[in-house]
């Protein structure tokens, strides 16, 4: 039975494997500091393979860079010995929900999700700090390699969950913000499905830099549009220069060839323009221009009206159809000359023939996408018993519009927001599911950012932003259920709360070659960790969805977890015997995980017996130990 690795994906090793697949001659072996043999890249050989495309030293080329950019790249690639611990008491409908709320530094969470949600997220929306001079940014701990992370397992003081004010007096004003955003956006891209998209809200302060970062990480060819959201009703009369009434939303695809936007629903006022004054059996229609700017001599001819009037195209224009096609349309009653037959000719465009929706535009008005006042009103409606704890939430109308634009036809996508803030995205997902009985799932990520002293939130008893966010989602789900009891019977209004923490494993687990003989039979699991804590780290390690259905049952007096029926069976009790293993093997799970029996004095013989039992009853089961 092999050990699980019990740390996040090592992106450096993954990249080495990708290079090895393309250029096996560029990968060699070298001895590491601990004496182990590891794969290394022969960069001289790789340069030769790419000699015609390789840029040497200071050779001039276009690039976007800033101080510590290289460290930012390394930060995204380095693994971390962390886990996600379930928190049932803060969750809603923990056992049945498919929604997740993850509390912790989003960089660490994105790393932990790399194997489980790789290529599974259809849509990401984020509203990161705008870097206006008063925002807070994540101050990450650069320059720790994989071995450093493992050696420092559990030492969280200097590992990054810190927030520092990024004031304009800081000489690294843009640098700090870029170093925060780059690794997170890099990891987020890997989570997107092949037809996945990401929407990023930002203001004027960093929109240029954000565009450059996204062009580099997602590819300039995968830029879709730059949306302008008109977010405010009025103007600021005290504005020093121009009154700021808009936000930017950048839209990028994982692969632009694999995604196309949905049409927006046609508003009633647009359909109301269609009339049927001549009782045409094809229904309501509107008169549309019969001429076009692109001139063609073949389409430049005289049209005679029923009243005998002759019409030619306007100067420098021509008719939209040839004379032959015009005669067909006239015979089919698709040309109108007005009620009296004396007006210029127009084409009849029938409501029944227009596409079932309208093409999205890049300017979104507050009428269609909500506004800041409406967003605050939504929060007030949910927190009627206390003062509003959020100052700058986004309206659910905006997020719903984004979902409508981006989602699959099946309405069952995973939607991720790793700057969850006030929880608007989760609220919007539940509202959309209520409206069309969809099965969309949200994944919210929010650092445990403390609320400011003397703030309304603090005075109302909220010590952190994540506390407010979770309470907002609880209240929103309850309100949706109460407002529409007959259409929300099967609505998933719950969420599993998971929290980032140090690994469940003791240091000895990661350095088995350095075990003192006196420690040989010591427990390698931290004493304060529960069996369910272990289960969720195992699920992360094996790439099993964190929203999977979990059941527990007794087998021969031992507690056994069954995830998605028998896809994963695990038993973390001590002193598991052959009878228990036999009963589990008969269930034929795809994975089976248990504590390492070799920690006991008869461990080697127990492992041999357990392997024989599985070989007999379930030879295809993948067996792992902690």
TrEMBL record:
Signal peptide: none
E.C. designation(s): 2.1.1.72
Protein name: site-specific DNA-methyltransferase (adenine-specific)
Reactions it catalyzes: a 2'-deoxyadenosine in DNA + S-adenosyl-L-methionine = an N(6)-methyl-2'-deoxyadenosine in DNA + S-adenosyl-L-homocysteine + H(+)
Organism: Treponema parvum
Domain DNA methylase N-4/N-6: 121-450
Gene3D superfamilies referenced in this protein's UniProt entry, alphabetically: Vaccinia Virus protein VP39
Listed GO MF terms: DNA binding; N-methyltransferase activity; site-specific DNA-methyltransferase (adenine-specific) activity
Keyword Plastid recorded: no
Family under the similarity heading: Belongs to the N(4)/N(6)-methyltransferase family.
Keywords on record: Methyltransferase, S-adenosyl-L-methionine, Transferase
